[in-house]
Amino acid sequence: MRTACIFRIIVVPGNITGPRYRCLAGDVEFVAGAENAHICDQCSIPELMAEKHCLYLEPTIRFLKGTDSVVVLRCTKLDTILPIKHYCQQCPSYICCQSH
Prior knowledge:
It is a single chain. The chain contains 1 helix and 8 strands; from the N terminus they run βββαβββββ. By secondary structure, the protein is mainly beta. It has one domain. The strands form 3 sheets. It has a 3-stranded antiparallel sheet with strand order 1-2-3, with no helix packed on it. A 3-stranded antiparallel sheet has the order 5-6-7, with no helix packed on it. The two termini are about 20 Å apart.
């Protein structure tokens, strides 16, 4: 796993196969070192949240087949799905924040 992510939490510390993680953005669990452990490497959410973004932006990830996925951006204030995050900056409710 290449990036730190605020949505990835450890569920079970290391065992024979490796630690078990839960992705809160995708609502899935996986084992580090298993065949699906590289799902974090393909995810754009850590980079998205590291940049300036709106406080109300809530990214989620939907897994399609196996490890194929799509990131969905939702405005929690307006309960709207956004095509790209730059739409947030045009909104009168935009509140800029940046994770560290």
